[in-house]
Structure prediction request, 257 residues.
Amino acid sequence: MTGQVAIVTGAGRGIGAASAVGLAEAGADVLISARTTSQLDEVAERIRALGRRVHVVAADVNDLDQAAALADEAVDHFGKLNIVVNNVGGALPNSFIDTSVKQLEGAFHFNVSTAHALTQAAIPHLLRSDDASVINISSVVGRAAARGYLAYGTVKAALAHYTKLAALDLNPRIRVNAIACGSIMTSALEIVASDKNLMAEMTGATPLREVGIPEDIAAAVVYLSSPAGRYLTGKVLEVDGGLQVPNFSMPIPDVES
Prediction:
């Protein structure tokens, strides 16, 4: 992947940071974006240490204009664009009764609308590439139900299906795939990591008997965006330790209480 150019959102830590570094290890130059400049600067140093170029853009992609602007920013700085990794997303766990319409709509905006805004803006640049790829970060909860994840699971399912639809619209010039992440040890799992019982539930529900690390997802990002994944589009790659049906729940109150 030497000389290719990638955009990675949410690249200040966790899966985004690992994916940006993984792409750099494979030879790509990377525009990294997140809201916190200090975190981005640390990731940028890791990329420079690999001998690759990096461009830091502090942005809040909840502002769709800022999300879309990253595409032109990458081309202005590097001269081209080959890869887009839509990593920004998430939603706090909550009970059904306490999940408002506003929260559900906000989760859709944060997970799906932001990905669409950046991908749509990137299309004219990606079409100039011989091997263009878009990768969306989804979740196992987008295909399997788990209590407490109404908003998160709904919007991640939407992102997974968006991936399939976009792949059909953009083929054959631009490949679009997604990764359904299982339990990955990022800051989002801090509440679980601090509770031995929750950790035991989560690892017990995973056939490989351990939670993943961000580098597990980064390896999939590199695979899907590289020539090794050239014959995949419209696919949701499950990187989840073999998880089939999550039998764990977030610590939220019962609906009756």
Notes: The two ends are 54 Å apart (CA to CA). The domain at 5-239 is CATH 3.40.50.720 (Rossmann fold). Residues 24 and 185 are 22 Å apart (CA to CA). Residues 251-257 have pLDDT under 50 and may be disordered.
